[in-house]
Amino acid sequence: MQEHKVSSRNRKKLAIPALLPLMLVIMLLAGCGNNSAADNGARNGAAQVNAAAATPSPSPEEEPEATEAPAAQAYPLVVQDELGHEVTLNAAPTKVFAPYMEDSLVVLGVKPVGQWSNKGQGQGYLQDQLGDVPLVDFTNGQLPSPEVVMSLQPDFIVLHNSYYAENGVYEQYSKIAPTYVFQQAAGDLDSSVTKLGELLGKQEEAAKGLADYRKKVEEAKTALAPHIQGKKALVIRFNSRGMFLMGGVYGGFVLAEELGITKSDLVAAENSVDLSLEVLPQIDADYIFLANDTANTGETFYKELTESALWKSIPAVQAGRVYDVDDRYWLGGGIVAYSNVIDDVLEIIVP
């Protein structure tokens, strides 16, 4: 940086002991003028130096500034949930009950006071981290009673979709602890994980988890691109009630919305469609993924489908592009589940 120098006036001593008054006046006026110019020059020079110091010229060797970590959440916190309820948190929650959002809690490093389960089984792919967390029964979609939830002593309850809040459940649960309701948390992970991080004071963990996941998605899309052009995919789910074509939910969401693999026309506008043998000739998918919901005993319908002559006539079946997948995370919702689905898809499709 160049230094801005302000020159000072040269002062001359008067050599003549007595001067004419007129000449004295002229010299005094000239001196005042020089003082003013010097002062202005000093101020201008200092201003230029300060401005240069405040805004240094960019240099190619300089490292870009690191992105600031999200600010710590301040409590008390008053928010409105996605159904319009006002929710007040006086402090960061430490005893959280968020059934079927355990995947997101794991990403945030939070262990809940109880975990969703169906017929005595929690979400299998999370049990290495949640194995010691009490199971709370949600079999057949039945929500636990207020008494069961109260016994967990939560200081915050999160319901992952609006269905869970119906039939007076929200009113009952919100008397136990502040209760936040999502419309459909699994349908928008960026929003739901970010919001959950804000509510729990885990913004930094939420941002990192999402950034890592987005990086994985982009890398997978790049690897898949040469293999999925013009191809369609379909997920078929089996449980005790029947068999269903899955559209934009769970593993189907990852295939279509995250990885960009075109949906079968049969589920182009639906999240789930009942499947019967009569529909099989209409299946237009190049890749078919079978998720047998073992907790809901889908084995009977699985055999009915895969042993039928109509099934064996489908082009994807004849081409050997039918794959049994792990229902524990293909029918789950969250960063961990979706990451596992991506791993499966890459292993199956990319040589």
TrEMBL record:
- Give start and end of each Fe/B12 periplasmic-binding domain: 93-351
Keyword DNA damage assigned: no
Q: Name one GO cellular component term.
A: outer membrane-bounded periplasmic space
Provide one Gene Ontology biological process annotation. Answer: iron coordination entity transport
Leader sequence residues: 1-37
Q: Extract the ranges annotated as region (Disordered).
A: 48-69
Q: Keywords assigned by UniProt?
A: Signal, Transport
Organism equals Paenibacillus borealis
In the record, the note on similarity to other proteins reads: Belongs to the bacterial solute-binding protein 8 family.
Q: Subcellular location, in the record's words?
A: Cell envelope
Please give the CDD domains that the UniProt record associates with this protein. FhuD
Which InterPro entries would you find in this protein's record?
A: ABC_transptr_periplasmic_BD, Bact_iron-sidero_bind
Q: What is this protein called?
A: Fe/B12 periplasmic-binding domain-containing protein
Q: Give the matching PANTHER family.
A: IRON III DICITRATE-BINDING PERIPLASMIC PROTEIN, IRON(3+)-HYDROXAMATE-BINDING PROTEIN FHUD
